[in-house]
């Protein structure tokens, strides 16, 4: 360990390495609820892409497992290190290198937070449209998990908003993939391959993100529905309407009560309506033109009524903002309420009613609680799972994941597999695909140093 | 050869295999201008995914090179087979398996043509928005080259419009990637990896494509500009405007004269304006609402004037349709005019003026002709190259490709590398990236049977 620490110090400077007991608690995991935190042997904080590459070369030579870390806000344990391994923290590589208003891209280092990028791009009327609900998250972390969030229904997920990368390979080289162009057809799309690979293939050292114009006018419509089924059947119709909401969230009655209570937020919904509502839809609309927005708000109100909403409310600016913020904090509310796990199965939109029914049935069979909210427009459901018994919880999760996959969906829409869901993933996924992915992994990382035990493989 | 032919017949039926002299001329290449056509040893026409997988297993066992073929409309030679190899033609696998109006996807076999898919999806008011300019192209071919086309400026390229695949691996297994969901974060994105791989990694046997609502109202605005530079500087401004054109094409004066002459199309532009115009922009707008469209047409006219257009004309329906069709046929016009090569470099939009200037300079140095048109909104330029001398032409192409890459672009935006541009690609691209791609290739195709010599590798 001493020798590795010494050589890391030679690469990044002694101030930017900590080893053994000097490793701070922050570096022992991310926000994943399940599983224990693990103290790595080293934390190293490179300042340049070349330093990242040199660190990886050393790790390959010395067979030291490497876990990349942005802001540590992940929910699947992909930033949970291994004992004996090292964390490469991108906290010093947090510069916005360029905001290019002609090509509508920003070039950033991976450690930049969404919050910083949001502020800087707003100054020129543009924005990076991935809002995973936690603005302290880093762009590098977005790349790792293929982060989504509320606005994905209109703007897509991270994968759809990254045009290029510079990345350090585990073998110690730097490569540039993609660029400031919107398309290429020149060999395999390494950008797309690295996005969502949860730190197992290469580490992004620079990211080219797409920017979109910020639209001047926005409105938020809240609609209570008598049943969860009615909400879920309404979702595909709203997506098909052409109204192009940038937010289309469902929130079940339990979750709505919890998040509004936590946020001390009153939405002005009469008690009798609230008591008769099993779930809510939140529809966000935006337009560059105020009149067009007003027309769309009217149209969405009519559509919601037609689709069985009990009513619909156009929220005032501050209420709207608070509700969206409260929804974004749903994870923290669930955590505070004692949730044992938070998962994010995605299914085809049409399968939402069946998926939620099957999740409730699985919860009943295991005497567990399952409540939630989610990106209904994407078919992406965030469920908070309440079940203290680890065996029952594992059974419940397995049944929910299996139900999602059976309906044509996947275990995770945006949180990733990480360490937390790996066992389920390996049991449920086609072994031919797992083996193919393992071969791709070896093509990038022959020594197997990058996040061993994440996605697949042993934890060593 | 006899043994392989016999075994192929056992897999797909004797009627669906041709060998030796029985192989028709159609199977000896695609539409690529450069290079010779090559007769393969066998053509096999599987009818099911399982048959494709069995054919590939046989090819791996017998080390027979395999070239996949959709409609043969490619422009980079990725569907040009090897002598001694086999062509797997998807002409029999041309069914539309499902049009899912709830999830807005279609599930199709790879041999379905864009034309068939367009007709069927139109019946339910939806559409697959990749229009590469040749409606006889197949969806499988789109997947192979990551095809683009005029509407990519709004809807993205193939990569952005495919949600999942079933694919046959060269080792003979079938895998399913992605699905009817709009996002997943469950391991490496094999869908994206296979898209654009030009038949070198796996063969798509089923494709899940995104569908978009067809908007009821559309308009086409044509604007002549005094110089190419003025056009190119206008492009980023129109993209930034929020008017979201679904077509944003430039056509240089030479190309406009050629395509309108070929199409016998009169656009009603006065002679004096035409003679003073070096280039044109074609701006397509669409909306679900007629009034909003009218407002946008007015706004785009004002913007074009501000950006230096000599004038702008809202084309009548038939003229608009004919101009778009004539533009789509620009490749055929160039071919008929004796063009020796057609290329499709992509650069950041801001680099368009510099790229065109450098292309003209390179043409002057080699006494060649270079004229063109292209997807200006994407920075994707289609240049017809007139130079009979192969050495001069190779030098010219190298200089144009190098200029594009130097400006932050890539050799191809949508046509791919194939066989035609491989030598340039290998000379200009970072060797570390090439080596990484080769390792990914081996992870999929250890025996190297899939399209050897396309993208990289020897032709054997």
Topology:
2 copies of one chain form a homodimer.
Chain A: H1 2-12, E1 17-19, E2 42-44, H2 49-62, E3 66-69, E4 86-89, E5 96-100, E6 105-108, H3 114-122, E7 126-127, H4 139-145, H5 152-155, E8 162-168, E9 174-178, H6 190-194, E10 203-210, E11 212-213, E12 217-225, H7 228-240, E13 247-252, H8 253-262, H9 271-275, E14 279-287, H10 290-306, E15 313-315, H11 317-328, H12 330-336, E16 341-343, H13 352-365, E17 369-375, E18 380-386, H14 390-406, H15 422-428, H16 431-444
Parallel strand pairs in A: 2-4, 3-4
Antiparallel strand pairs in A: 1-2, 5-6, 6-10, 7-11, 8-9, 8-10, 12-14, 12-15, 13-14, 13-17, 16-18, 17-18
Helix pairs in contact in A: 1-2, 13-14
Please provide a written account of the structure.
The structure is a homodimer of 460-residue chains. By secondary structure, chain A is an alpha+beta fold. Chain A folds into four domains: 2-91, Uridine Diphospho-n-acetylenolpyruvylglucosamine Reductase, domain 2, CATH 3.30.43.10; 96-213, Uridine Diphospho-n-acetylenolpyruvylglucosamine Reductase, domain 3; 217-331, Alpha-Beta Plaits (2-Layer Sandwich), CATH 3.30.70.2190; 338-432, Alpha-Beta Plaits (2-Layer Sandwich), CATH 3.30.70.2740. Chain A has helices spanning 2-12, 49-62, 114-122, 139-145, 152-155, 190-194, 228-240, 253-262, 271-275, 290-306, 317-328, 330-336, 352-365, 390-406, 422-428, 431-444; strands at 17-19, 42-44, 66-69, 86-89, 96-100, 105-108, 126-127, 162-168, 174-178, 203-210, 212-213, 217-225, 247-252, 279-287, 313-315, 341-343, 369-375, 380-386. Chain A has a seven-stranded antiparallel beta sheet with strand order 15-12-14-13-17-18-16, sandwiched between helices. Chain A is globular. The interface between A and B is large, with 80 and 80 residues. Chains A, B: Residues 36-214 form the FAD-binding PCMH-type domain.
């Amino acid at each position: 360990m001493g020798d590795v620490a010494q050589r890391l110090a030679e690469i990044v400077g002694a101030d930017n390495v900590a080893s053994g007991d000097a490793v701070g608690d922050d570096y022992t995991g991310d926000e994943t609820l399940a599983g224990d935190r693990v103290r790595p042997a080293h934390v190293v904080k490179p300042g340049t892409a070349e330093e990242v590459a040199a660190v990886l070369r050393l790790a390959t030579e010395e067979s030291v497992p490497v876990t990349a870390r942005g802001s540590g806000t992940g929910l699947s344990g992909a930033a949970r290190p291994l004992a004996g391994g090292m964390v490469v923290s991108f906290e010093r590589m947090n510069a916005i290198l360029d905001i290019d208003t002609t090509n509508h891209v920003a070039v950033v280092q991976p450690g930049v937070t969404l919050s910083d990028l949001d502020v800087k791009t707003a100054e020129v009327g543009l924005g990076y449209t991935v809002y995973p609900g936690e603005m302290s998250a880093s762009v590098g972390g977005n790349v790792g998990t293929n982060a989504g969030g509320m606005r994905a229904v209109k703007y897509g997920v991270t994968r759809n908003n990254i045009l290029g990368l510079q990345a350090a390979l585990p073998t110690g080289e730097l490569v540039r993939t993609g660029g400031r162009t919107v398309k290429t057809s020149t060999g395999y799309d390494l950008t797309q391959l690295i996005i969502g690979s949860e730190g197992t293939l290469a580490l992004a050292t620079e990211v080219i993100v797409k920017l979109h114009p910020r639209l001047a006018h926005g409105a938020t419509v809240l609609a209570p529905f008598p049943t969860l089924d009615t909400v879920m059947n309404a979702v595909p119709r709203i997506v098909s309407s052409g109204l192009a909401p940038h937010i289309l969230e469902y929130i079940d009655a339990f979750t709505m009560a919890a998040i509004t209570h936590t946020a001390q937020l009153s939405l002005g919904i009469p008690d009798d309506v609230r008591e008769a509502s099993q779930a809510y839809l939140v529809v966000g609309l935006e337009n560059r033109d105020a009149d067009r927005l007003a027309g769309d708000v009217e149209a969405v109100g009519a559509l919601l009524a037609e689709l069985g909403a009990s009513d619909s409310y156009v929220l005032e600016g501050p209420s709207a903002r608070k509700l969206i913020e409260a929804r974004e904090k749903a994870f923290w509310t669930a955590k505070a309420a004692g949730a044992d796990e938070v998962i994010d199965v995605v299914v085809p939109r049409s399968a939402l009613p069946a998926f939620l029914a099957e999740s409730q049935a699985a919860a009943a069979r295991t005497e567990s609680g399952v409540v939630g909210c989610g990106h209904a427009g994407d078919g992406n459901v965030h469920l908070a799972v309440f079940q203290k018994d680890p065996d029952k919880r594992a059974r419940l999760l397995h049944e929910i994941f299996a139900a999602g996959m059976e309906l044509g969906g996947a275990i995770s829409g945006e949180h990733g597999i990480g360490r937390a869901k790996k066992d389920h993933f390996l049991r449920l996924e086609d072994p031919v695909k797992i083996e193919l992915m393992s071969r791709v992994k070896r093509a990038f990382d022959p020594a197997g140093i990058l996040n061993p035990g994440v996605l697949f493989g042993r934890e060593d």
